[in-house]
Write a structure and sequence with these properties.
Chains A, B: Keywords: DNA-binding, Transcription, Transcription regulation. Chains A, B: This is Transcriptional regulator, LacI family. Chains A, B: InterPro entries: HTH_LacI, LacI/GalR-like_sensor, Lambda_DNA-bd_dom_sf, Peripla_BP_I. Two copies of one chain form a homodimer. By secondary structure, chain A is of the alpha/beta class. The first copy, chain A, has three domains: 44 residues, no CATH class; 132 residues, Rossmann fold (3-Layer(aba) Sandwich), CATH 3.40.50.2300; 131 residues, Response regulator (Rossmann fold, 3-Layer(aba) Sandwich). Chain A is built from 14 helices and twelve strands. A six-stranded parallel β-sheet of chain A has the order 2-1-3-4-5-11, sandwiched between helices. In chain A, strands 7-6-8-9 form a four-stranded parallel β-sheet, with helices on both faces. In chain A, helix 5 links the parallel strand 1 and strand 2. In chain A, helix 1 crosses helix 3 and helix 5 runs parallel beside helix 13. The first copy, chain A, is elongated. The interface between A and B is large, with 73 and 72 residues. Strand 2 of chain A pairs antiparallel with strand 2 of chain B, so a sheet runs across the interface. The structure holds a DNA duplex.
Chain lengths: 347, 347
DNA sequence: ATAATGGATGACAGCGCTTGCATAGATGCT
DNA sequence: AGCATCTATGCAAGCGCTGTCATCCATTAT
């Protein structure tokens, strides 16, 4: 039996513009203007209003504000996963840039499921967001229609390879080209018997694009991709380790293995280390993403760095700078941030 | 000069309840009820309304809905960082659980800055969220006041050690106890000359609590913490590696080193590996978090696993189940999810 | 038959803010 | 002094929903 009176729960914030206005002795509109810094305001009034708001601990109701002004300072961000540091970094780029502009991110995680993406985007749209940032460029037709009919600013990020036209704007890199670049690098180093270890590629479309680019480049140079090992489930160090073990059990003669990403490649690295395989002499290892962990291994991982944080920032920026549809049509729709091949010590 | 007519930008979603109502031949209230599944509705009406909404591609305006009904289906989530997989996992737990319940997360990243936390929470409150989930239990006095006066459901997560009373509910573990547990484990293994390598501990309060718990347990057993090396900046594999190198340069006689977390510890691991130090014989290494990467190293890292995903889920759940303030006062305010010491092969 | 019951729906007043328009002093200009 | 200009502020009409209350048929009970 605790007696609560001083700390009694207040009737959930009965604090409105009107209260502040009353206390400052001005009208609601004036308070509204002061708080949003618009229109000419006498200095004395401004001070009085700010003081009243401060003393009352007034927090404006943005729901009402957004409804009244159409435009919600909310930006929907849709990523496929948060198991992996990759999207967390993208998210960081997005939120930081948005915060500078006073906007906030509402997030949705699809689990690489396009049907779920559709539902999530729809739910996000219900907040009438200023814009939408979505990882990936592959969507269900229904989602495309929804977005097209809706007119919301949308930025597709991470990826720029695709036959489908951009929904609106894109910020990313060509995963096909990244795969091809790695193939070219490995070929230049003299490797000829290639293997691949990946995770569930039917869901991770960008990983597939890298593999396709990789294989295509090999083919172009008349070299075959000898073997592929796909591990079920999401990418992880453990999966990469197991995958390489399986792959090598069936194909002892490989001289280089490309992994779907760095997590997987680090797993491969550990497998080699644990089994006395020297890299790159006994086996070359390459990944994708350029994660820190790969670069801190005793032997730096050969990989391709994707500018994730920057992609997030740029994506947010696209939302911020997007004005009318007219201007949108004028600007280039796609920003290719490129990538950087890191020639490490494992390949 | 592009002529756009077919694809002309629509007047941003002029689609309201009224349009759907008109098309279905019923009133707005009926549409509202059908869409929210409340009240008795004739089956024929339901079908007609759903059909009209579907055909029109109607997406309800939740801003308006929330404003009218007070209760916004938005939950603010505040984390200190997204550099690290740890909070990404927490976030995943939160968003997944919220999504099941039809709620959405608006996120804020503080960068371990309490002043910024205050601003972010204030901005989040402006959306009149159903609840707030905040990592950490240390806040500015002003933030405490704001939240207390506001009556919003809030869950502090990750940490449960602290003199300050809980804002509302807590879900986490005792970092002090985790540090102490590791000290006990290492002492039991016979180590006696301890070192510590940490990152910017003035900001990462939980890392400090672990260190304090660790040092206290050593002291209780009459053992000293010989040396501490603090690396500036956030935790990272690189920082851990550098930190250990520095520490050992000054103190060659240590037999065990405790790291502020697993990222740092993995860096230490690589340092040992690169310098021919055998673990645990030449040097024992221990971390905190129980990250996958640590468990996939050739020698499994000795660490303490924190149930991050579960913390996120539970935190979301607290928001979902929280009813009135009365009931809130009745339930236990703190959930201790505990932790698990993983006796790996490095200590 | 007629009243009572309940299922199905519509009307309408807000929710808390923004914003165009009106108003009222205070200045400036001729 | 008289009128145009500003600057500073208030008024009031919504923004697109929700929720209460009233209404209107069908049924069923009497």
């Amino acid at each position: 039996m605790t007696i609560r009176h001083e700390t009694a729960p207040m009737p959930a914030s009965p604090l409105r513009l009107a209260e502040v206005a009353a206390r400052a002795g001005v009208s609601e509109s004036t308070v509204s203007r002061v708080l949003r810094n618009i229109g000419p305001i006498a200095e004395a009034t401004r001070v009085a209003v700010l003081k009243a708001a401060e003393e009352l601990g007034y927090v404006p109701n943005r729901l009402a504000g957004a409804l009244a002004s159409t435009g919600s300072a909310l930006v929907g961000v849709v990523v496929p996963s948060l198991d992996n540091i990759v999207f967390a970094e993208v998210l960081r780029g997005v939120t930081e840039r948005l915060e500078e502009a006073g906007l906030q991110a509402v997030i949705g995680v699809t689990g690489y499921d396009l049907a779920r993406e559709e539902r999530i985007v729809s739910a996000l749209l219900a907040w009438r967001p200023r814009g939408l940032v979505i990882a990936g460029i592959d969507h269900t037709p229904r989602l495309r229609d929804l977005l097209a009919a809706n007119g919301t600013a949308v930025v597709e990020m991470m990826d720029i390879d695709g036959a489908e036209p951009a929904l609106d704007r894109r910020v990313g890199l060509s995963h096909g080209a990244a795969g091809a670049a790695m193939a070219a690098h490995l070929l230049a180093r003299g490797y000829r018997r290639f293997g691949y270890v990946g995770h569930d590629i039917s869901r991770d479309i960008r990983a597939r694009k890298r593999l396709d680019g990789f294989a295509a480049e090999l083919a172009r140079r008349g070299v075959a991709l000898v073997a592929e090992e796909m591990v079920a489930g999401p990418s992880s160090v453990a999966a990469g380790r197991r995958g390489l073990a399986t792959l090598l059990a069936a194909h002892r003669d490989l001289d280089a293995v490309y992994f779907s990403n760095d997590d997987m490649a680090v797993g491969g690295y550990f497998h080699c280390e644990a089994n006395g395989l020297r890299m790159p002499d006994d086996l070359a290892i390459a990944g994708f993403n350029g994660l820190d962990i790969g670069q801190e291994l005793p032997r730096r991982l050969t990989t391709v760095r994707s500018p994730r944080y920057r992609i997030g920032q740029l994506a947010a920026e696209q939302i911020l700078t997007r004005q009318g549809a007219a201007e949108a049509a004028a600007k280039p729709a796609t920003i290719d941030v490129g990538f950087e091949l890191i020639a490490g010590e494992t390949a």
